[in-house]
Specification:
By secondary structure, the chain is an alpha/beta fold. The chain has two domains: 169 residues, ABC-type transport auxiliary lipoprotein component (Rossmann fold, 3-Layer(aba) Sandwich); 84 residues. Helix content is 58%, strand content 19%. The chain is built from eight helices and ten strands. Strands 2, 3, 4, 5, 6 and 7 form a six-stranded mixed β-sheet that branches. It has a two-stranded antiparallel sheet with strand order 1-8. The protein has a two-stranded antiparallel sheet with strand order 9-10. A hairpin with a 4-residue loop joins strand 6 and strand 7. The longest helix is centred in the C-terminal third of the chain and has 41 residues. The radius of gyration is 38 Å and the shape is elongated.
Length: 314
């Protein structure tokens, strides 16, 4: 009996020792990376090729789906956020804007793209950014001819990007994913707050507008005070002498002084009001002026001759 007890005790001790020395590995949950593919930008506004904005986007998603390695943010969700944040055209391929959109749609990788058409040539450029490590992880640039060959170019750039992304963007630990996503969201919130604070800083044009508006307001206030004082005091004095007459030379001199003062103050008051209105009318538009970047685009095509399209947008 004692021998059995000893053996059982020994086995339990060995088992406990093994569990302490070699604890069971904690199962780590792995999750797929989530991709946000933004519309591809028509860099030089070649209107007849606008359909590529979404054709390239769809082709890349199709190639990435074949890898069975990624999750995707919905295109409609992405487009809604772009509209809400008023991000259009070339602004979409800016790294900071792209990352902000990705976080809005709960993605940790964002893909941007652009294409340029000149004459019968096209160049497509695609880039993928990992917002956790804050750097580009894949890019692809392919050139070719327009026409039927354009669809081969779209397929080539999509296949090339999907291949590079599948190698670079493997599954990650869920805890790591959650922590990094929270960190990035906090960073974007702080940055947006800082940008809002900085947006209150006036440009040189706004500063000039503020100065003119303040000056105009001062002129208006001064003119009103002068006119009220002039009409309320000196006009009554002049009217009094006019109604009751002047009996001696001293009253005549007093009347002349009052009349000259009335005319002078009235003229100064009216002039001040006019200057105030002009200064304020010029200053207020300058104060609220927002500098919008002008957009210039040039497209050259060769079709039975050279066709040049030039667009300028204020």
């Amino acid at each position: 009996m004692s021998k059995k007890f000893f053996i059982i005790t020994l086995l339990i001790s060995l088992l406990l020792t093994h569990m302490m020395l070699y604890p069971a590995e904690k199962k780590v949950e792995k999750i797929k990376r989530t991709i946000a593919i933004l519309p591809v930008v028509n860099q030089n506004n070649a209107a007849e090729y606008n359909y590529l904005n979404y054709t390239i986007r769809d082709a890349l998603k199709a190639q990435l789906l074949h890898t069975e390695q990624f999750l995707f943010s919905g295109f409609s969700d992405i487009d809604n956020e772009l509209t809400k944040m008023n991000i259009k055209d070339r602004a979409m391929i800016g790294e900071e804007n792209a990352k902000a959109i990705a976080l809005k749609v709960k993605a940790d990788v964002v893909v941007t793209g652009k294409f340029v058409v000149i004459a019968d040539k096209i160049m497509i450029q695609m880039d993928a950014y990992d917002i956790f490590i804050n750097q580009s992880v894949a890019s692809s640039s392919i050139r070719g001819d327009v026409g039927l060959d354009i669809f081969r170019i779209v397929d080539d750039v999509s296949i090339n990007m999907a291949d590079k992304m599948s190698k670079k963007l493997t599954m990650v630990d869920k805890t790591y994913f959650d922590e990094m996503l929270k960190t990035q969201e906090d960073f974007i919130k702080k940055k947006r707050k800082l940008e809002r604070q900085m947006s209150f800083r006036l440009s040189k044009i706004n500063t000039a507008g503020l100065a003119l508006t303040v000056t105009g307001g001062t002129f208006l206030a001064s003119g009103i005070v002068l006119l009220v004082y002039d009409l309320g005091f000196y006009m009554d004095k002049v009217k009094e002498y006019h109604d009751y007459g002047i009996t001696d030379s001293s009253e005549y001199n007093t009347y002349q002084d009052a009349y000259r003062t009335f005319i002078a103050l009235f003229s100064i008051g009216v002039t001040s009001l006019v200057l105030g209105v002009i200064s304020t009318a010029v200053g207020i538009p300058l104060l609220v002026y927002k500098d919008k970047k002008k957009k210039v685009s040039l497209n050259i095509a060769y079709n039975n001759g050279i066709n040049v399209a030039f667009r300028f947008k204020l």
